[in-house]
Each structure stands twice: as C-alpha cells, then as structure tokens.
Amino acid sequence: MPTANASVVDRENLRAGVDAALARHVADLRETARVISADAAPLADAVESMLAGGKRLRAAFCYWSWRAHGGTPGDGREEPVLRAGAALELFQAAALFHDDVMDDSSTRRGLPTAHHVFADHHRATGRRGAARRFGDGAAILLGDLALVASDDAMSRAVAGLPEPVAQAAHSVFEVMRTEVTIGQYLDLVAQTMPWGDPQDDERRARDVVRAKSARYSVEHPIVLGAALAGADEDAIAGCRAVGLPLGEAFQLRDDLLGVLGDPSTTGKPTGDDLREGKRTVLVARALARATAMGDRAAVDALTRGVGDPALDAEGVATLTDLLVRTGAVAEVEQLIDELCTEAFAQIEAQNWPEPARGTLIALAHAAVQRAA
Fold first, then answer.
1. Predicted confidence band of residue 3 (pLDDT cuts 50, 70, 90)
2. Are 26 and 43 in contact (CB under 8 A)?
3. Element spanning 358, H or E
4. Which cofactor does it need (predicted)?
C-alpha cells in the first residue's frame, strides 16, 4: 500500500491495535489446530498470511466513525471498536479465500493464492487424488474458518456493551455478511448472462458493486463505528449517505486497476478480470459506447474476449485499448469523480468533530486515489 495511505491507517496506532486483535485470533486457531492434529497446522499459517497483507481501511473507517460520533480514545469502548475492526478484517479474509477459488485467481497481493499453494503442496508430496480439488477444498475451508473467526471477534467486541448498542452493532455486521454473500452470487450470475442491452448490463454490474463491495468496504464499516458509539438513526443515515457513493467509487477504482494497474503494485496479473469475465461497469460502458458508435468490430472483440480464460497478453492489450479508445475508462473516471463529489458533500453535511472528520476525509481519498 502506498505510504500516504499507510500513514492514515496508522494514526493513533490503529493498525497496531487491530493487528494485535488479529494475532490473538490466529494464535487461538493455531492452538486449536495443534490440539486436533499436527496435520492442521497449515490452516493457521494460511489465515495468518492472508491477514498480513490487508490495508485495514475497513477497520479504520469503523474506528474513526466511532470517534466522529463521540468515541474517546482510551476509554472502555475503544478495545471493542478495535475488535470490531478485526472482525471486519477477518470477514474480508473469508471473502477473499472464497473469491479466489470462484475466480480461480493465481495471485493475491503478489503471492500465490491459497488454493494454488495447497494444490502445489499436494503435487509436491505425491498425495493421492486430484491436486486441484484438494486445493479448492482447502481454500473453501479456510474461508469458513475466517468466517467463524469473524463472528467470534464480533461477539467478543460487543460483549459487555449496553444491550441496545450491542444489538445495533451486531445487526450491521449480520446484514453486511448476508449482502456480500448475495453479491457474490449476483457476480456469478452476471458472468453467465449473454451480453444484452447495455443498460441492463450496467444495472447488473452496479447491483454487484453495491452488494458485493461498496457497502461492506465503506458504508457498513462507517455505520458500524457509529453504532458502537450509540449514534441515533439520523446519524446512522448520514453515515450511509457518505458510505454508499464512496464505496461505489472504491470498487470502480478497483475495476480500473484490474485492467490498467501495475501488477507489481496491485499484486494481481493484468487482465485477470477480463479473463474471468467480470461484468464491470467499465466493460458495460465500453460495449455501450461501441454500440452507439456502430463499431461492430469492437463489440465483437469485447463480447468474445471478455470471459475467455485463454486470453493471452496480446488479447488483454487489445481489449484494454478498446476500453480506453471507446471512452469507457474516461467515463468511469468521471463517474468516480461524481460519486466522490457526492460523498464529500455528505461529509460536509455531517457535524463530525476533528480529528475524526479530517481523518475520515483522508481515508476517503486513500480509498479512491490508490494504485493497489
């Protein structure tokens, strides 16, 4: 992660506090695995590896929203907020383990994905059965373990808090988990649909963006922090008004980086989203523009190439050129700007005190002005 972004997340030792909570969960998992069987040790190693590379943006949005709504550093509720941040990070780890299997991604944050690591170990040790199935199965179970740990972290976070605060916070977390799971399914469905009306394609793409990423990346963490501070419904509504457009901008930036980003920075090969057939707003806009221009060759190239797992570097370059040449990249950049303008206007409308207000603004910039 760029240093500027890291400095925002590191303010007031937030990262250290969240990392300490995560380390306790990994240690608990490692001990449980040790007691059950020595063969289970690689599971704790894989969870630890996945957690080590996180940006901690979700945890930071949660913490600084808590501060914005009256939270005081060092008081009895700070540790629960840090634990809630750890719960968000564990949930993200669970989603990434599963997402990598579903997309058959080869790398994550510059390292081999878990299902490939376990499959390679299967081959190297001469085990029986299909290495690919073993790797996929292990990664699915890793996601399940991280999901169980996230629930445990959230339960520990709210234990001892006033009952209305605990219920409100847990409700946010439960809704978030359900939405992301449904969003993953919608993503799968979208990739199976034939290309049709460009407006319908973009509608599906934005449904996926909101359910799978936007709300859980920004909106729900901000709302969760406010709920942990005991914020009222009006304050919660203000958080949602900030979080949703900012979360959409966050994911749209991710979509651009998936095509135009530097692999040495993003940690993923360029063009993976194109090979996987991701039905992004970017691709939908390119098809809409090519159709409007009557560029049949561009339409054919996009509909054939997006979703082709055998797409080579030249094919990726051709599609990337089309995304730029049709004006789709410029349109998505403009959409990001519009969403950010909306989000920052909503921040201005909130009566958030300093230093929370300034830090949340810095976090918002870090979420959308990034290279990874």
1. very low
2. no
3. helix 356-368
4. Mg(2+)
Q: Which domains does the chain have, with CATH numbers?
A: 3-368 (1.10.600.10)
Q: How far apart are CA 325 and CA 314, in angstroms?
A: 16
Torsions phi, psi for 112 (to 5 deg): -60, 140
* Rounded-to-integer distance, Cα 73 and Cα 67, Å: 8
Beta strand extents in the chain (DSSP E only)? 107-108, 111-112
> Rounded CA gap, 289 and 221, in Å?
35
- How far is CA 328 from each of CA 5, 87, 208, 312, 320, rounded to the nearest angstrom? 27, 36, 19, 22, 10
- Give backbone dihedrals phi and psi of 108, rounded to 5 degrees, phi first: -145, 120
Tens-digit pLDDT profile for residues 209-252? 999 899 999 999 999 999 999 999 999 999 999 999 999 999 99
320-330 pLDDT tens trace: 999 999 999 99
Burial class (CB in 10 A: 0-12, 13-18, 19+), 300: exposed
DSSP 128: S
**Owner of token pair 């090979």:** 275
| 348, two tokens | 């201005």
pLDDT at 76 over 90: no
3-state secondary structure of 108: strand
More confident residue, 149 or 269: 149
Report residue 275 CA to chain centroid gap.
20
Torsion of CA 31, 35, 36, 42, to 10 degrees: 40
- In the predicted model, what is the mean pLDDT of residues 50-75? 94
